[in-house]
């Protein structure tokens, strides 16, 4: 038989490693085999080392830029300085207080945005009149920069947490609503018909058929919504510094105001780490959906 | 129970338009089992969709009982639910209490011989298994009117024979009205009280005849074979006008 | 608004300021409890910090604060935008603290031709001062950034980055940015104090909402008393004051300010209760002259009667608007 | 026959009006009938009046707030003032120059972001190693506020247009990449298998199968990416005011710096109108896809 | 041409695991037409997927010619392409120049009797039409090995007969090797050189026999009927062990 003949040989077990939920369009994806449990730690490591490598590369490029001194040290902070700063910060109450305050606001703001986004999204997707009236407004609102809302926020809520929440919600809810609308719009008509035929009407049709069917798109919208809410929050925290409530947004701005390069980078690292953490949560949700729907067998 | 009067359905506009059904009239009396045969693309699925109220005719009037249960040509299972979840959903929507629901689901899954697969998801099933889950889900609707679009198309002969018996038992017991689309003329002769033949595009009523073979019938009985041969001849005649 | 009497008969005074060197009077007054002391037990002091003038003015307009320390620019804006209704300047706070810092090679105005010079904001006091100064030295600069000298208005922190990266050749900026540019290798070409009579011009003043002033003159008077006391402290104990400022800013930002930087900038600042009305008015006139501001009527901006009462009680010379 | 019997009656033509691409989950959606051409203008009007109504309602609430004088006019600009300001602005060269400059930057920045986002998105979705290394970094990067990048932008590009573009691309590309990744991840395995079987390998598999199959999600990602790029641009335009180049971002900031409420609202209206225009373009793309895929028959 | 040696395929792990194929061995010589019959869920689709290289066996070795063409049990058409686009895609991927491609597509669409629907999209077709498009697309691959999973399951008897003739002509002309899954035992007897019967879960080789009826055959000829009856009996026996 010639060389380009397809030959599939496998002995027990060592099927292609699905690599902790990572999908690839090679035989490994299309033909997953059994994955023994005892490989857990090995696959954890398999998922970790590329991240560490990427991190190492970034640090290396950065350090080289510092070594070559193509910019003076006050213009370009070194990794050592930045991490020293981070380490120092991490020892202060102020730092943890900032992180907690901001995380609390982020979660609350995100939840509010999700609530508003879902209601608006489903309402617009469902009610013809609303869609015609405000459908195209949603993307337009999304493009409005946070600072444009500051006067209105202060007008409505004075210098309170609510003003910050207002900025966050108005920044993130449209994005989530858009995810919901996109999801609802792309529900396969066959599933809709099937749902209607088996007796799902009105709210039930939404709850039992349309919502689960649009879950992938909704999760994607939530992810984008998180990014919007976080960025709006960073802006909103500049709006009001409530007495005794330090925050990451304020820290970021102060570091910038003071041209404190190591401090700025230290805060950026904190933001990145939180972002990575949140992405992990979304990653789990995403993979759970994919596994249940049989889109990956990992 | 089902009354179809001068119903037409055209898809698209202008020169591209396809007329799937053309002034079709058909009545199905309560408890009757009507089999529809016709060439591929003659409008059978369109007709069932109209009767189920999932599509609106371009012209004409359709009356059907409340909530006719439609078994689609494709399985149309919900990928996010398990087999049991799919079969149980119509019951859940009717607010059947949990113990009753679970018992009913188990019974239906036993009927379609899939008890072992209650916890699997649709993507883990074979084509024929999916079709059987869809059948169980349709039966779970407990509707007095059943619309079935090639419900046994993906099944092997044996499983099909068993399900023929089951379906016959259920329809007789509950006096269901059935509109049953099939490509298998023997199947039509085995199950139907009446066989309706649609013409090729546009779908018109070409011929119909009642099946006078006494029940219980067997699919390989000489009477069924003879009737099937007769209908096949008529069908062949019809298709021959269009193809080739 | 919360400025109304609460059931207990307590008035709330909401005071705003920036965590910034030019707001040293406010920071010291808050840190050392001077405002609280003068306001007495019947008034509750609530403080907020802003990071720039516009937010402070938004808060004033929206009845979210009652009094704020701000620079001359937002002051004029707030007065003009509300057609003289919203605010009154009731006291000065600080003067000076602005410099024109350039790259070391530049020693003469003529060398500025074709250079890029930053200012904090188009039409603000520093921007106007630079343009006016350039005009006096026979150099042109258009609003759009053209002419002999390219004036680029941008955020102060961006200016420092841009200076570090040689993207600009100099900047006319307030403290602490001027010091920071010097620390980054810049050279002071002009100390703005030298351009003004008595080397004094307003950089921070205390502003109050007009209707709050009308309703609570006594409270405002006590606030002014606090401000006067704060400046007295600042001038009497510069070391202590600098420490208090460093700590006060540290509390708000998480990072105490570098004492050396404070000390360097401190020299260019003067803390005075005189709002130096003349400098504000002539600043506005200059702005009109270089075509950056419509003629604004500033009559009624100052209400210094309470200040003068306080000063008199303290045996100090009075100021005029 | 009883009252709850299903009866479908229709005479020719008057099938439920699909209402200019608007989907609803009533019979109108599931059972579209023929739509005669001569109804074009009527359906245009049907799509327009709800928008006008919504606009009218917003204006009414706003005007009532102004009439009740719950805030003095300098804190809350009246609609009349704001539109007068807009009208005045619209007569100036400065205004149109700003709009053109910003639109040019927005388009260029968006195109760059799309390029980067697509390359990164497909690369990460395809290459296991890259996904493990930088996959979760993408969402983290998305959450980084634009101002954090200013020092780096100046370091790399000084005060040039490129610095603005850098801020825009780093703000928008992650969002687009996420859309691409979500799309690729949810391609039905059956279509993938079919593609492989009919001989699509490597790039061809991407170009002919995966990309078109993930188009809906990609378009959703592009929409979110546009919002991100626009907001980043508004921030980036504060970074650099290039000689003789007024911009909307600078105008917005200028209005805020001067507490110019009517000016701020006028600029917001311009941003909204541009957003509406862009949404219309996305809406067309979206509806074209839906129609071709048979998800709506409108 | 196709060699399957001791191939097993298990889905899932632990107590949930389903063994679809269990140490199955089968050889198909070049130009041979092998029909596979078996109960629903016995592993037929899994086998074809393995032979096509879209899945990897848990154990065992499979060898097949280069790029076997697989016609899936579902149509698996690309929704964003028209009928002509779907059929033409394999040609495009092989870089067949445009005129040749268009001619070939037209020819293939004529073969499956869908020339009028070249410009339609999959969602505008009936179930049987989609299946025929899938058939045309598979034939467009011009692979020497054809793997077909119930290719005519959704077609009426007449259209199916016509396509039987077409398929026989094509395979004979080009000497194609075919592995053909069907539930219709008559169809197997009509088309196959050999019939292979798989046992129910797990799929094992239960029985095989060559079809010695000379070609051309007719599906309603007595020889075909007799053989079909024989295979049906064996199948019935097999299924009876599992069901009921
Ligand atoms: N949504 C649609 N848009 C356009 N044309 C359609 C649509 N649905 C069906 N048709 C057309 O209507 C005709 C009848 O389709 P239908 O699905 O009813 O056929 P069928 O009798 O069920 O065929 P089969 O036996 O192949 O399933 C076909 O020609 C088809 O192309
Ligand atoms: N992806 C999967 N995950 C888990 N189980 C699977 C998967 N694919 C198939 N199976 C199981 O493997 C068995 C064989 O499936 P297969 O699709 O090969 O059956 P088949 O012979 O083609 O049946 P049919 O005639 O009904 O199409 C079934 O029991 C099914 O549940
Ligand atoms: Mg059909
Ligand atoms: Mg199968």
Spatial order of strands in the largest sheet of chain B: 5-6-7-3-8-9
Identify the overall geometry of chain A.
Answer: globular
Helix content of chain A: over 70%
Mean pLDDT of chain B: 89
Series of secondary-structure elements of chain A, N-terminal to C-terminal: EHHHHHHHHHHHH
Number of helices of chain A: 12
Query: How big a fraction of the residues of chain B is strand?
Result: 15-25%
Structural class of chain B: alpha/beta
Assembly state (oligomeric): heteropentamer
Q: What compounds sit in this structure?
A: adenosine-5'-triphosphate, magnesium ion
The H/E string of chain B reads EEEHEEHHHEHEHEEH
Keywords (chains A, D): Cell membrane, Membrane, Transmembrane, Transmembrane helix, Transport
Family (chains A, D): Belongs to the binding-protein-dependent transport system permease family.
Pfam families (chains A, D): BPD_transp_1
Domain ABC transmembrane type-1 (chains A, D): 99-282
What attributes does this structure have?
heteropentamer; A: 298 residues; mainly alpha; 12 helices; 72% helix; disordered N terminus; C: 321 residues; alpha/beta; six-stranded mixed β-sheet; five-stranded mixed β-sheet; 13 helices; 11 strands; 19% strand; binds adenosine-5'-triphosphate; binds magnesium ion
